[in-house]
Amino acid sequence: MEKKKATLSDLRRREALVGWLFVTPVALGILIFQIYPTLFSLYISFTRWDLITLPRWIGPDNYVELFTADRIFPPALRNTVNFTLGTVLPGLALALLFAVLLNQEIGGRFIYRAIYFVPVVAPTAAISILWAWIYQPNFGVLNFLLKSIGIKGPNWLGSPQWAMPAIIFMSIWQGLGYNIVLFLAGLQSISKEYFEAAAIDGANALQRFRHITMPLLSPVTFFALVLGLIGAFQTFTAQYVMTRGGPANATVTMVLYLYNQAFRNQHMGVASAIAYCIFVIVVGLTVANFYLQKTWVFYEEER
Q: Residue 84 in contact with residue 289, Cβ under 8 Å?
């Protein structure tokens, strides 16, 4: 009996050892490539470091300077907020509209769905270069079309007034397909019994959309909204490729400014402080969305 107990105990120890052997590489990877860089960057945000000399502790001076003395950070924050407002909600509204249309029994709807999704899988850098050609003031397609109807198009990416709206329009177009797929999945999960019952009660199409589709689609809308806000505050590639943040800092965003401070100016402390400002804003918006979802997100009860 004692020999049997010893054998079971040895087997359990060997199983535990094998389990730890499998877990250890993953745990080390998380520790080395995620936890340590995160904590180190937090420390660096309270220092002055140029990658050559040793970091010098300066306390919260980097954060204070960003909000009081820095002339680029306030426009970068404002541009990021404007980009977020200009892309997230309009993009969701357009995606819902197209999803409703593509959910109908129309010929070739699968082809249309694939066409709308192509920009999502295309590299953002390539998309940005393509749209920079479209926006080109002298021989771009957009100004050519405007000229053909008697309108003189502006220098889209060279104008402080038009540069950000141009990038916003491109970003909505690129992300449209992803949200369409989300809304299509949500629409197809709604039971047709609700619509049939509402139609019998005399509800028209708009009433069915408002009182059935929108409430039952709210979990998908909430998911897309949270992802959209997080992604919008991390926007970088389009601004970097198309305008480098210009003209006159009209398109510089927080992540682009972080990149410039870190890899152009070697101000790693300031760059880390910007990164944590982005982190706090994104976490705050996410927490607020999860808190506010109680007022407008409705989950279908299981029957």
A: no
pTM here is: 0.90
List the alpha helices (DSSP H) in the chain.
2-30, 36-44, 61-68, 73-102, 109-121, 124-134, 141-148, 163-188, 192-200, 205-208, 214-233, 237-242, 254-259, 268-296
Q: What is the pLDDT of residues 30-50, one digit of tens each?
A: 999 999 999 999 999 999 999
Tens digit of pLDDT for each residue in 240-283? 999 999 999 999 999 999 999 999 999 999 999 999 999 999 99
DSSP string, 191-250: -HHHHHHHHHTT--HHHHIIIIIHHHHHHHHHHHHHHHHHHHHT--HHHHHHTTT-STTS
Distance CA 245, CA 164 (A): 10
d(CA 282, CA 269): 20
